[in-house]
Design brief:
Blueprint (H helix, E strand, L loop, with lengths): L4 E18 L4 E14 L4 E7 L8
Antiparallel strand pairs: 1-2, 2-3
Length: 59
């Protein structure tokens, strides 16, 4: 069975952190998350997630 995506949606979420996390690059005051919802022509859908924390070594 081969699925043919008809619609893609992305949702960028951010949850505040009660106790900020500090490292040598920055202080994190929230945790970001990127969610992806893919829907096909029949209305079936699935969710995926991506690590939305930027890597300071690649920036």
């Amino acid at each position: 069975m081969r699925l043919k995506p008809a619609h893609n949606e992305t949702f960028l979420l951010e949850a505040p952190i009660t106790n900020p996390v500090r490292n040598s690059f920055r202080t994190l005051t929230a945790r970001p998350a990127l969610l992806l919802r893919i829907t096909d022509n029949d209305g079936a859908f699935g969710w995926g997630e991506v690590d939305a924390n930027p890597n300071p070594l690649r920036e």
